[in-house]
Amino acid sequence: MLRGNSVDKGRNDMNKSRSKVSSATDSSTLHTNGEILQSPNLEIFCFNELTEATSWFSQNAILGKGDFGTVFKGWVDKHSLKTASPEAGMAIAVKMLNQKGCQGQQEWLAEIKYLGRLYHPNLVKLIGYCLKDDYRLLVYEFMPNGSLDNYLFSRDSQIQAPSWNLLMKVALGAARGLAFLHDEADVIYRDFKTSNILLDVNYNAKLSDFGLARDGPTGSKSHVSTRILGTEGYAAPEYIRTGHLTAKSDVYGFGIVLLEMISGRRAIEKNKPFEEQNLGNWARSFSARKFSQVLNPAVSGQYATNNVIKLGHLALQCVSLEPKCRPNMKDVVRILEEVQDLNDKEGCKSFVCFNGIRHLCSVWMLRKDEGVNHKFVIKSSRKVSSSIMPSTRTIGEILHSPNLKNFCYDELKEATNYFSIDYELGQGFSRCVFKRWIDDKHALKPYRLETGMVKSLSPKSCCSQQEWLAETQYLGQLSHPNLAKLIGYCLHEDHRLLVYEFIPNGNLENHLYGIGFHCQPLSWNLYMKIALGAARGLAFLHYEADVTYRDFKASKILLDSNYNAKLCEFGFAKDGSTHGKCNAFARFLGTAGYAAPEYISTGHVTTKCDVYSFGVVLLEILTGRQAICRNKPSEDQVAEFAKSLASECNISQVPNPAVLGKHSTNSTLKVAQLACQCVLTNPKLRPNMKEVVEVLEELHDYGKSN
């Protein structure tokens, strides 16, 4: 743990406003056991100077002790960096590494290697170093507010209680530092935790302790293989399991730190019940919309609900067990900047007047373009003007969609050539070309032309209104590689439109049954890739978003240019997955042939209903038969057909050789077995989507190796 004031070193202007990576070399290099250190920007301190600066490494000067050494407070002259008195000097932090053991030597070299050439406002500044006999010392700027760990968990009454805005400021600063390491310096930090985030006099976050940092993978490598070093509770599970280190390992650590900040709980708490001891595991049991249950009561009332949902979703994405589902640090920074912008907004500059109400106490406003709640009070006054506003069909419904663009109806009309038949894609979709815009906080500038899809919902339907709201609710907040991306929406009089990313290869149903000019049957490996992607999307909805999809079918699995599966149309989705437990009763909405029998008969929705539908889609792939054939008896429908074969131990007859061709192999039988398990009549006997993903991943890996 390091503390200190900011360093104002006259001859080495290290306090730049922008980050940089130094590539300069120095003729005077330092050699230690065959290691060559290039450190032209660092001061080489004399051991006696540091001894005197720290009052001979006095016990009273100790700031903290870590795994690799002890940190002392010292004083030097601001300009000459020679020993000075506390009254006239500048505070520094001196880390003396343990004299015995190669680990301390390696950490010392790593600190000089990285902090000697990297500069960023959110990295702690290394001023210099000292090497004398077995002594290895590092000299840093002093951080007066200690570490984030100390700020969050210290019982010192002199440390102010955490505030929400300050926590968000620290989180954003730490994220920017980590993003700089990943994207500009190609460095993996490897030990991101609260005790390694230092706070300067203004509570700006500074990353410290680069002893475990590693250069990122080179060439075609996707990871760095290394001995497992880190801190329990912060280390990513795949790194612990395999030793494979990637930037996504740091993202996991950041997610844990974010959870510590907003929950007030440590990464590991042994005194909690077993299922709550690991903060990451405990937090994953909540959905983003239930994230208020995770929040620290100490910051209650200091935040807006929409910010909590946004942060909850971000934190849960960061600690996802699947590295591919975690965001990169650039995305994390962008989201935290949005949250901070929402916190910083001033009150609403408009108000609503109501006709016929003599006493108006308070009005809640929602700024539509930013999604911020504002409250203001109009005292009793007869001078307040009033007007009658025309009613709309969306009164009482509030859309929170800060990530979505609000399109103008005329803009979409023009983009789709006035909703021309030539632009129709099917399923109520029209192809469009629209212009995207970005806001650099000073001016709106044209970005690029893109192709998208516009879905126009029926203007005279209560269901379409609910579907429109559901789509914006879910796809406006959820992001996953296997969910279609909703770009924006439009509400104009009775017209409700949704704008999606363009998916060029249609949907799975098109390819299974040759619907459409360009849609042809695919290879077995491609079908398995699509099935795995769709399964991952459903598993994400069930376990990380707490959502039941409710209408999973082949036509709702869209295929991008690389045939990656994207789930679309969330109009029937419901909150609360309950993982097999009985959910609230819901009016039956779904598609015959795909809907689970218990949902049809009782109206009870669980994730196992989605599992049943997934099994039907697998059977469609295996058999080449549609979920429902109107000209066949019920026992010959694809799900019943498969169940009857399974009960007769004839599961090998489920795959259709005419459909699968040369791929009627062992793997197809395993897929058939999985599909038959998914469509079992008893929901308790069906696997969950995590188990489905595991089976399909094994088959996918086997297929690639053969």
TrEMBL record:
InterPro entries: Kinase-like_dom_sf, Plant_Ser_Thr_Prot_Kinase, Prot_kinase_dom, Protein_kinase_ATP_BS, Ser-Thr/Tyr_kinase_cat_dom, Ser/Thr_kinase_AS
Protein kinase domain segment(s): 57-339, 419-703
Top-level class of the enzyme under EC nomenclature: transferase
Taxonomic source organism: Ricinus communis (Castor bean)
Name the UniProt record assigns to this protein: non-specific serine/threonine protein kinase
A GO MF label: protein serine/threonine kinase activity
Pfam families: PK_Tyr_Ser-Thr (PF07714), Pkinase (PF00069)
Compartments, record wording: Cell membrane
